[in-house]
Specification:
This protein is mainly β and 82 residues long. Helices cover 10% and strands 35% of the residues. It has a 3-stranded antiparallel sheet with strand order 1-2-3. A 3-stranded antiparallel sheet has the order 6-5-8. Strands 4-7 form a two-stranded antiparallel ribbon.
Length: 82
């Protein structure tokens, strides 16, 4: 998950990286279902969070992920289908 805000505070608050494609995102949180929807697959397939060290963690249905602007690790977090 890459966090980004331009110098004037305009534009998307975040860009989320889902299977290599960046999607603009304006909220501080994102759910498992929202990630799957942005990625274009059924949530029943699953969603896996991949951190900057390439550690994988399967997200639970309904799980809410808190996005953190300015934290270095946030730039490397991404998701893929399970």
């Amino acid at each position: 998950m890459a966090s980004f805000r331009d110098c004037k505070g305009h534009g998307p608050k975040y860009f989320v990286n889902i299977e290599g494609k960046k999607h603009p995102w304006n909220k501080d949180t994102i759910t498992t279902e929202e990630i799957a929807e942005l990625g274009g697959w059924d949530v029943a397939v699953g969603v896996i969070e991949v951190d900057r060290d390439n550690n994988e963690r399967t997200l639970a249905p309904g799980e809410v992920v808190q996005l953190k602007p300015g934290h270095g690790f946030a730039k490397k977090v991404r998701w893929k289908r399970g």
